[in-house]
Structures are given as structure tokens and as C-alpha cells.
Amino acid sequence: MLEPVSEWFRWLYEAYGIKLTIFYDEIDRKRFFRGVWTTIHLSFVCIALSVLIGLVGAWLQGSPYVWVRRIVQGYIQFFRNTPPLVQLYFFYFAVDSAISGLLGIRGGMLSSYGWAVFSLSFFAGAFNVEIFRAGIEAVPKATTEAAEALGFTRLQVYREVTLPLAYRVCLPALNNNLINLLKTTTVAYAIAVPETLYISNQIWSDEFNVTEMMNVVWIVYILLVGLLVWLMHRWEKAIKVPGFGR
User: Fold this and answer.
1) Do the beta carbons of residue 58 and residue 218 sit within 8 Å?
2) Residue 193, number of CB atoms within 10 A of its CB
3) pLDDT tens-digit series, residues 161-186
4) Any idea of the CA torsion for 65, 66, 71, 77, to the nearest 10 degrees?
């Protein structure tokens, strides 16, 4: 079924010199799609964890204990005020070797993929904390006071009253942050996570087709970001409450 496609791209190379080996060379095709798949599941895991971190962090920001609020603020400032690539190097090279040396673990605590998940999730999570906090502050105070008057605990008010209303307000900003997170997964290239850009680099180094592969990488990210935007807009539309958040 793919044979005519492969033959067409082979003819394209022979006739015009446009070398897209991922369409007719089985080895290049397999490693390229493995790279795309790594980008997809790295993005999915980081998005899920960053949203969870944002939800927990926003709840802790409303804690009655000052030291809890200060810890959350310290976390936000650390991750928001430093570049994601520096954070990735810091965790992969400094933290990993320090903990491994302390515990006597050979070969490192986590793989490059594990540190990419950890670093990128906490990086995006810091922004998500502020996004959810803004959404929580948009919920009318009378609503939460009514829930407290009915005997709800602080956690119940957050989980069953504040959060369902707050995330409707948060979604546009959350959408932007998650799109940025998906694009930021390319920094995992720096610690040899075999994602799309890393694998594409290997292919263009072997095949000398930098221009062709850069165009392919560009199209792959447009498609992935477009899919995420479409899903987020569908979700935003599905949970819309008429008259709320406008």
C-alpha cells in the first residue's frame, strides 16, 4: 500500500534532488516515527503532570499557613525566572549526579527521558499554579461562603465548588501554556531524549538532507500544536456555562 508513495518520493529525489528518505528508507522511517511518538507521549505526560501540579499548587496558595504559601511562591519564582534549558541541565547534570553520589547509585537516578518529564512538568506547572490562582480569584466570594455555610470543608469547597467554576475561566490561558509546553519539549534534545528534533538531526547528519528534514519537523509541530488547540477549544466549548466568565 505504501509502495507507490515510496516510489514517488524516490523518483522525487532522483529527478529533483529532494531527499526525503523517511518515506522510502525503512530504517529512517522507523526511527523518525519513533521520534514523533516520543514527542507525543513526552508532551502528554508533561501536560498531565503540569496540570496536576498547577491544581495542587493553587490550592496550597490558599493555605492558612504562611510557610506553605512561601514554599509555593519560592517554587514559582525558581521555575518561572530561569530558562527551561538551564533547568533541564541543572536537574540532569547537577541534581542527578549529586543524589546518585549521595545514595551510591551507579548510572544515575533517572534516564534523560525521566529528567525531561520532571523538569518540563515543574516548569509548566509553575505557570499553571498562577493560571489556576487567577481563575479561583474570579469565582464570586459569595459562592464559596455559601458552600462553607453548608458545612463543606476547605478541600471540598475547592474540589466541588471553586475548581469546576475556576477552570472555565482558566482555559484560554491554560491553553496557551500547554501549547508552549508542547513546543518546549524540543529542549529535551539537549540531553539526548530521542524526540522528533533529536532523531531528525541524526537523519540529516546521515543523509545530508537538512533542508528537507527541517521542513518535515516544522510540519510535524504545526500538526501536533493544531491538534492540541482543536482539542482544547472543543473542551472549552463543551464545558461552557452561559453567562459565566463573561
Assistant:
1) no
2) 26
3) 888 888 888 888 999 999 999 999 99
4) 140
Contact 50, 128 (CB under 8 A): yes
Q: Which of 208, 210, 178 is nearest to 197 (CA)?
A: 210
Q: In the structure grid, which three cell numbers stand for residue 61, read together?
A: 496558595
- Are 139 and 170 in contact by the 8 Å Cβ rule? The answer is no
Give the integer Cα–Cα distance in Å for 103 and 161: 44
Helical H segments across the chain, by residue range: 3-16, 26-61, 66-80, 84-89, 96-103, 112-138, 141-149, 154-157, 163-184, 196-207, 210-238
CA distance 178 to 50: 9
Write out the three cell numbers for 122.
Answer: 515543574
User: Which residues have CB under 8 Å from 153's CB, separation 6+?
Assistant: none
83: its cell numbers: 530558562
Please give the model's pTM, rounded to 2 decimal places: 0.90
